[in-house]
Amino acid sequence: MTRIRSRFAAPAAAVLAVTAVFAATAGRGGEDITRARLERAIAPTFANLYVQRSAILGKTGVTVASIDARAACDRGGPKVADVGPGANWICMITFTDDGGQRQEGKFEVTANADATYVAGGPSKLVGLATITDTHGNDVTNPAFEFDGAFDPDS
Question: Which residues on neighbouring strands pair with residue 131, listed in sequence order?
Answer without folding.
Answer: 139
